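Task: fold both queries, return tokens.
Query 1:
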Amino acid sequence: MEHLARNNVETRRFFLGMHRQPALIKYGCDGSGNYPVTDGLTGTGMYLPSGSGLTGEQIRHICRLIGEFKR
């Protein structure tokens, strides 16, 4: 995310899984259960830019940046 931000690409972390969102639990969603995949994605996932207004060049630029990233 930092690499993309340095290159003017905005990202956001994933939201909490539905089973962990206090507002949903407050209104009756069952927050019990074990959802390790959801919890893992919440900790590591990110949203990339999306939308019908993205140009092909913007998409290629984002893909190049992701490909350049090395840990």
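Query 1 returned. Query 2:
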Amino acid sequence: MNAIKANYFDAYRSLKLTRDATGVLVAEFHSKGGPFIFAAQDHTDFVDAFYRIAQDRANKIVILTGAGGDFISGVDFSTFGNVADPGVGARFTTKACRFSKT
């Protein structure tokens, strides 16, 4: 099947978007092509990305996946700056983000 590329597919540094002719969109989280390390800019980018994905009627199915075997392999807390409750970040662990391969 031929891939169909929308204009927003290359707009996000940590999200590789591909869609086939049947409307199956694969959204792969990555950091420079490797396992994904979540950062503050990604939070902002993903809000916009998922809005655009939802508005695009050519998308029939969306598959979320991660590069390198992990969905989210870590979080770069240093990119979030000062937070109102620093304990929130301390309670979060990357183990909560690990999924096994099926």
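Both queries returned. Flag for query 2: The two ends are 25 Å apart (CA to CA).
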